[in-house]
């Protein structure tokens, strides 16, 4: 058994000090694993991802990346974040920079890698997601799906050990969802370690090694995708999965 | 063709005098702009801090300056403070003080607005790339703020230039005062001078502000 890359220990998070958004969440991610987190809105999925990256302070518990603790405002946070790639729902490209400059900024300014080398890599990655011809465009000239693919490339170019995806297709038109999910499937095939928060159940089933079902800030169910989607163990998971199927009316 | 009174312009040094008056107006605005833009940026950044006392003080300053007509401020500084504190303040200096107070307040509000208009996610996605606070500001926040700010501050600059037409009320001889003097001096010989001279003043203000506005719309287009 490989050592986990990322471990989450008894994480408790509350925004107001009374109601816990995350209650005692623990899990571990091994290299090459793809974890998909599903659950109803407001169950704490996004908050969980934000805590993994130190974007949110937590009340108790611990997140560790390769033995080092990630904490909001903690030491080494900048160094640790370079090892974690994050892709947001609303893309969050930098509007004043071209696609290429968006991608180059982190590797050249934060990691101080030589520009020529990074640019070569960035162009190869852009080519892979079918956007090489957009390298000199500005984000406003791109569709949502294109922006999100650029955001993925931007995260990849930092050579992260683990990638976090926070509902990256939730803001997209249906026909653009596919192009983004295909990129993620490709990354999974390549063996990238990923934690994916999503509402795309078919995709979750295809991409995941393990599914975490989060409800009310707790991990209610944790299983292989086939097990979880075909034979959910808990009532809450069954009810949740039922919201994605429709009975015929005719 | 009615008599537009334009011939007065070419009498003696009238045209040069008008240009000199415009020079005074532009000097007052240029000095005020040079002082109030950096001060406004500083105060604007301070206004986005979470310190409630600092925020309250700056808010009060901004509101007072904005509510008060510039003319009242000019009178207050030129006639009021000189009596009350017994100092000797030339009109031009008093004008610069008022314009700096006003320009700083307006600029700080523009800066504050531009800063808070940057979505929180821009900070987060920079931080997620491992950028330090300083790098986030330098590469992400400041460039975006500046792009929003330049058209707005250019607009403020032209407003300041136009508002210098008030300083004649505290005895500063700028372009409008010079025109009054010329019109007054030629009341008998050219009673229609008012039209020609004020038309010229209009053209002078236009020539001073129009290029600045062009620059603003150019930059706006470039950065849209």
From TrEMBL, chain A:
Belongs to the ABC transporter superfamily. PANTHER family: AMINO ACID IMPORT ATP-BINDING PROTEIN, PHOSPHONATES IMPORT ATP-BINDING PROTEIN PHNC. GO terms for molecular function: ABC-type amino acid transporter activity; ATP binding; ATP hydrolysis activity. InterPro entries: AAA+_ATPase (IPR003593), ABC_ATPase_HisP-typ (IPR030679), ABC_transporter-like_ATP-bd (IPR003439), ABC_transporter-like_CS (IPR017871), MetN_ABC_transporter-like (IPR050086), P-loop_NTPase (IPR027417). This is Glutamine ABC transporter ATP-binding protein. Transmembrane segments: none annotated. Pfam families: ABC_tran (PF00005). Gene3D superfamilies: P-loop containing nucleotide triphosphate hydrolases (3.40.50.300). Keywords: ATP-binding, Nucleotide-binding, Transport. It comes from Faecalibacterium hattorii. Residues 6-241 form the ABC transporter domain. SMART domains: AAA.
From TrEMBL, chain B:
GO terms for cellular component: ATP-binding cassette (ABC) transporter complex. Signal peptide: none annotated. Its main location: membrane. The keyword Secreted does not apply. Keywords: Cell membrane, Membrane, Transmembrane, Transmembrane helix, Transport. It is a multi-pass membrane protein. Pfam families: BPD_transp_1. The chain crosses the membrane at residues 24-48, 60-81, 93-111, 166-183, 195-216. The keyword Transport applies. It is found in: Cell membrane. One of its GO terms (biological process) is amino acid transport. PROSITE patterns: ABC_TM1. One of its GO terms (molecular function) is transmembrane transporter activity. Belongs to the binding-protein-dependent transport system permease family. This is Amino acid ABC transporter permease. It comes from Faecalibacterium hattorii.
């Amino acid at each position: 058994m490989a050592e986990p890359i990322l471990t989450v220990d008894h994480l408790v998070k509350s925004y107001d000090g009374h109601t816990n958004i995350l209650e005692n969440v623990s899990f571990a991610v091994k290299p090459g694993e793809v974890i998909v987190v599903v659950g109803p809105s407001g169950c704490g999925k996004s908050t969980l991802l934000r805590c993994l990256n130190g974007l949110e302070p937590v009340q108790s518990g611990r997140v560790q990346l390769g033995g080092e603790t990630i904490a909001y405002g903690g030491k080494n946070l900048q160094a640790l974040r370079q090892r974690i790639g994050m892709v947001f729902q609303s893309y969050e490209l930098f509007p004043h920079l071209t696609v290429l400059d968006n991608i180059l900024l982190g590797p050249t300014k934060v990691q101080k890698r030589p520009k020529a080398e990074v640019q070569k890599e960035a162009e190869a990655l852009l080519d892979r997601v079918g956007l090489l011809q957009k390298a000199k465009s500005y984000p406003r000239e791109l569709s949502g799906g294109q922006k999100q693919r650029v955001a993925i490339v931007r995260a990849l170019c930092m050579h992260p050990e683990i990638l976090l995806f926070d509902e990256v297709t939730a803001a997209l038109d249906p026909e653009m969802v596919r192009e983004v999910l295909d990129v993620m499937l490709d990354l999974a095939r390549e063996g990238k370690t990923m934690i994916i928060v999503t509402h795309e159940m078919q995709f979750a089933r295809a991409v995941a090694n393990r599914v975490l079902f989060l409800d009310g800030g707790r991990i209610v169910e944790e299983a292989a995708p086939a097990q979880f989607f075909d034979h959910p163990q808990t009532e809450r998971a069954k009810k949740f999965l039922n919201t994605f199927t429709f009975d015929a009316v005719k | 063709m009615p008599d537009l009174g334009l011939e007065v312009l070419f009498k003696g040094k009238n045209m040069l005098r008008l240009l000199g008056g415009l020079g005074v107006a532009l000097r007052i605005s240029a000095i005020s702009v040079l002082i109030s833009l950096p001060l406004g940026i500083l105060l604007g950044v301070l206004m986005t801090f979470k310190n409630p006392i600092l925020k309250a003080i700056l808010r009060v300053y901004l509101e007072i300056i904005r509510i008060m007509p510039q003319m009242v401020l000019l009178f207050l500084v030129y006639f009021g403070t000189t009596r009350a504190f017994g100092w000797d303040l030339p009109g031009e200096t008093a004008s610069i003080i008022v314009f700096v107070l006003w320009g700083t307040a307006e600029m700080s509000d523009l800066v504050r607005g531009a800063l808070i208009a940057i979505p929180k996610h821009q900070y987060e996605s920079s931080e997620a790339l491992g950028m330090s606070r300083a790098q986030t500001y330098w590469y992400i926040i400041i460039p975006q703020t500046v792009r929003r700010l330049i058209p707005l501050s250019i607009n403020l600059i032209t407003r300041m230039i136009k508002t210098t037409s008030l300083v004649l009320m505290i005895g500063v001889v700028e372009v409008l005062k010079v025109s009054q003097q010329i019109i007054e001096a030629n009341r008998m010989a050219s009673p229609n001078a008012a039209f020609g001279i004020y038309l010229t003043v209009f053209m002078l203000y236009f020539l001073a502000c129009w290029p600045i506005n062009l620059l603003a719309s150019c930059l706006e287009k470039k950065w849209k």
